[in-house]
Specification:
globular; alpha+beta; 2 domains; single chain; 13 helices; 4 strands; four-stranded mixed sheet
């Protein structure tokens, strides 16, 4: 049995007011499709045999989560909107948790000593790495494995005996199918990723998902700074950061995560970019060291002139 992550009202308010990952309808649609494709892969062919209301509810979950990586619409809301039972909505959430596609946390109730409606974070969304770090979700993988081994509502007597060899073969074949469905070429990369960035990274990453996540890291770093122009105008910075990360990787300087190193490099480069823009926008900001040199030089000239007058 896993321990649920519980967040305070202040933390939930901060999550709700965080800068959206998507800026317009087209970007939100692209982000939704990325999440929806992972859900469809989890269901396999069975997805298309689901009732229309169930598929629409799943689509809306992905749409809600596209903006900031999570959704908190209640089971009753989705059930009533798409004419399905609230149990169906809960089964969807359990299915996605079992496949490691969502991580569910809870808000602490203000009216009673308990939990209020759950918040579901999509693990395939570029913002999940941020939420994982911000909310201290350390044991996600352990929780996912533990929940995957538990089958609530079923006793051991009701479970049929399994032929281990038969089911092992079945699981391997299913895994191959799911992996194949998840592997999309670079032509499937969402439109919000600049073509120039895709062109530079495709020699090292040939899957749409990997390129999309890399650009998500760039966007996440960009949102830490109030820069003058949209992210697309800084594509060259993202490409330069990627090249530096590749160089570091080739020379064995990256000890942990490639994408994490890329993100850190981007933050450093955006810091310099912010300083340059601040200097340009404020002409009265000057280099005090250079100015001090000019003052010293002026004082020396004055002393020389004063001596000449005295003579």
């Amino acid at each position: 049995m896993t321990v649920s992550t519980i967040i305070s009202f202040t933390e939930f308010k901060a999550m709700s007011s965080y800068t959206p990952y998507t800026k317009n309808h087209q970007e939100q649609q692209s982000a939704k499709l990325l999440l929806l494709n992972s859900v469809q892969a989890a269901y396999g062919e069975r997805f298309y045999r689901l009732k229309e209301g169930t598929r629409k509810a799943i689509d809306m979950m992905c749409w809600f989560a596209a903006e900031k990586g999570f959704f908190f619409a209640s089971d009753n809301y989705l059930a009533e909107r798409y004419a399905v039972s609230d149990k169906t909505i809960r089964n969807i959430a359990k299915k996605l948790r079992d496949h490691g596609l969502i991580y569910t946390i809870y808000r602490r109730s203000n009216t009673q000593n308990g939990l209020s409606a759950p918040i579901h974070l999509f693990t395939k969304h570029p913002y999940f790495c941020y939420w994982k770090e911000t909310l201290n979700i350390e044991s996600f993988q352990a929780d996912f494995q533990a929940e995957n081994n538990e089958i609530p509502g079923e006793s051991k007597k009701e479970q049929p005996k399994k032929d281990s060899t038969k089911y092992l073969s079945f699981n391997k074949n299913l895994l191959k199918i799911l992996r194949k469905k998840n592997r999309l070429g670079i032509t499937f990369t969402p439109n919000n990723v600049p073509q120039l960035f895709i062109k530079e990274v495709k020699s090292f990453f040939d899957e749409a998902k990997d390129i999309y996540i890399l650009w998500g890291k760039a966007l996440l770093a960009y949102k830490n700074f109030n820069l003058a122009n949209p992210i697309e105008d800084y594509t060259s910075i993202a490409i330069n950061a990627f090249k530096q990360t590749i160089f570091a990787h080739k020379h064995g300087k990256i000890k942990k995560d490639f994408k994490g190193y890329f993100y850190g490099t981007l933050k450093n480069m955006f810091t310099y970019q912010k300083r340059e823009e601040t200097f340009k926008d404020h002409p009265f900001i000057f280099n005090w060291l250079e100015e001090q040199d000019n003052i010293d030089l002026g004082n020396k000239n004055f002393e020389k002139w004063d001596k000449e007058i005295s003579c």
